[in-house]
Amino acid sequence: MDFGKIINEIKKLKSEKNAICLVHNYQRPEIYQVADIIGDSLELAKAAAKTDADTIVFCGVDFMAESAKILNPEKKVLIPKLSAKCPMAAMATASALREKKKQFPEATIVSYVNTSAEVKAESDICCTSANAIKVVNSLPAKQILFVPDEHLASWVEKNSDKEIIKWPGFCNVHAHISPDALKDAKRLHPDAKVIAHPECKIAVLDLADHVCSTGGMIDYAKDNPAKEFIIATEEGMVNRLRMEVPEKEFYPIGGTCTGMKAITLEDILSSLKTGQYEVTLDEDVVNKAKRALDRMMEL
Ligand code: 13P
Ligand code: SF4
């Protein structure tokens, strides 16, 4: 079946089933065409929290679909492919976090949304790349245990006077972007502004003109007078930027996240037809994780 036919079938099934598709910026570009909302983790979590749809088809990775379920326990949340996972989220487990908490009993636990529901349930508050600095700086505690991204933790540390204890996790896509690759790109495109995601290493962030979430990249590219931008994040982000800001040039320097590219249009169609794969979570975990997510949403 060609893309056009699948897209029409998906749209028909969505309206029959009162379903919406929430789509992360890194998804395959053809998936944008069936999206009700395309966005970063925070924008999608907000959309999940306020939808009146019966079913949410989450086109992103595991932790995002889980967050949608935590915010909407009574709704059906589907993830069209089980291999759509974030390897960084798997770098922190609830039992390891419980052990770490014993070492730092005074610390407030801030978990990046790129964590499992069980880790969120052990946390005091969540954050995304869009609000990590704001969340940490809003807390009364002096000591913060930041889970699981050590690079985002370093970025927060640079923008806060808190003591930040870093979990040794990282995103392999962002951690692979080297300062030398960025310097080469700058030599090739001397007029380009550099926009970097805070999951990059601090040595890369120090070379950037702007550091922000994937959603923030669109606003910056629209508002900045520059005509060219080097994009230090997952390569798929340039598809979204080219769609939203077609009059400007975008040069990607990041690799591909295989988890983010796992879902296809065929998978979404099949998910709407069969109801696979439904996100199910333990009720106690949902209640505890919801407290941490709600605290972030209140901010
Ligand atoms: P954003 O919330 O900035 O979209 O980041 C999510 C993510 O997984 C980045 O790798
Ligand atoms: Fe996870 Fe990195 Fe993929 Fe984002 S790009 S989903 S942090 S592995």
**What's the Cα radius of gyration?**
19 Å
CATH topology of the largest domain: Rossmann fold
Which sequence of SSEs, written as H and E, runs from N to C? Answer: HEEHEHEHEHEHEHEHHEHEHEHEHH
Detail the poorly predicted runs: none
In terms of DSSP E residues, the strand content is: 15-25%
Summing up helix and strand content along with how strands pair, one would put the structural category as: alpha/beta
- Counted up, domains total 3
Q: Mean pLDDT score, rounded?
A: 98
Largest sheet: 4 strands, parallel
Listed once per kind, the bound small molecules are: 1,3-dihydroxyacetonephosphate, iron/sulfur cluster
Description:
This protein has 299 residues and is an alpha/beta fold. It is built from 14 helices and twelve strands. It has a four-stranded parallel sheet, sandwiched between helices. A four-stranded parallel sheet has the order 6-5-7-8. It is globular, with a radius of gyration of 19 Å. The model has no long low-confidence stretch (mean pLDDT 98). Bound molecules: 1,3-dihydroxyacetonephosphate and iron/sulfur cluster (SF4). 1,3-dihydroxyacetonephosphate is lined by residues 25, 40-41, 114, 128-129, 171, 197, 199, 213-214, 234. The site of iron/sulfur cluster has 13 residues, from helix 8.
